[in-house]
């Protein structure tokens, strides 16, 4: 499979993000101007379909056009769960958008291998590289070359309602799985759904396996997944067994298998936003998603955060985290205006606006002062102190193997499989490439 060389390069991502400090339609393909500098129209795909996030990209495109009247950017919002599939279709058809959201890791490496992504190594402004530091770019580095511009750093953990914890008599954030299970029991006794889970979209359910694997498996095993997707080590089965055991306490909302992650008040994020569930395991983008789903569409005042609890007996480093880096790439044949726009939105000013619009952690160190949400403060502290940060497993593994993992986790939680079957399915998918 041709993608193997590209994935070997993406080891910079899965090698771990160095410690430092988210309705499908639209035209694709570029209508770039001629070599003499005529008018240029760029197409852009992003995953912010509502609220301040969608407005951010509309405003950024308008501001860039104001400074560069010859360049027009046609912005199209793609539902997050549809983005990967739509991009794969674009790659296969050769009809790529000029600018597209990229998640890094094996997913980006596969597109690079298809020759569909522009090498940005020498096209990123020096002041941007300096402000961002090396770590965020690792997620978009393939064969030593940069193929994407970071926009946000997105480590994960458990977001929770402080009010619902208080209502249930929970006075301290759980630090171990036993303490988390005790909190689940107290919330049930208080008549509150303990943990919201949007398993309909698969990847939120798989997050639970990712974190149990982070605790069970050593750093090297996690780091090498991009180049060596081997799940024969006993720790992978241990992680699946630990998840199966945790699921036995019935911690998730009723109907979690048919609950979506981010769409509407009845999604898992919506359940937290409307105090119908106490917790959700998710990445840092969740603050903005939850804010968009509260009754007043403002940040949830009592939202808190704590790291995924420690699990006895594993080989993962204490305090290790899992997460990702969102960013944007240019198609291979995009006009130069593409990288110019990415440099434009990577300035301190626009990164600060990004942090506010998305209620998240910007990639630029210079823009961290714009992060004010109280739930993100402990997250940033934990991220800074983590011994290492692993990339989301499905992102590291690429679309085919990553999807097999995600679906296998849902099947196990639905009673259609068991830990042994889950690990076997993923190993089979990895063997097929």
Could you write a compact summary of the structure shown?
This protein has 433 residues and is α/β, with parallel strands linked by helices.
Write up this protein.
- Helix 3 (51-67) links the parallel strand 1 (40-46) and strand 2 (71-77).
- The chain contains 20 helices and twelve strands.
- With 433 residues, it is an alpha/beta fold.
- The protein folds into two domains: 3-154 and 323-392, D-Maltodextrin-Binding Protein, domain 2 (3-Layer(aba) Sandwich); 156-321 and 394-432, Periplasmic binding protein-like II (D-Maltodextrin-Binding Protein, domain 2, 3-Layer(aba) Sandwich).
- The chain has helices spanning 3-9, 11-14, 51-67, 80-93, 105-113, 126-132, 134-138, 162-167, 177-189, 203-216, 219-223, 234-247, 268-273, 286-293, 337-344, 348-358, 376-385, 393-397, 399-413, 419-432; strands at 40-46, 71-77, 99-102, 141-142, 145-146, 149-161, 193-195, 277-283, 303-306, 321-330, 361-362, 389-391.
- Helix content is 44%, strand content 15%.
- Helix 1 packs across helix 5 (105-113), helix 10 packs across helix 19 and helix 19 (399-413) runs antiparallel to helix 20 (419-432).
- The strands form two sheets. Strands 1, 2, 3, 6, 7, 8, 9, 10, 11 and 12 form a ten-stranded mixed sheet that branches. The chain has a two-stranded antiparallel ribbon with strand order 4-5.
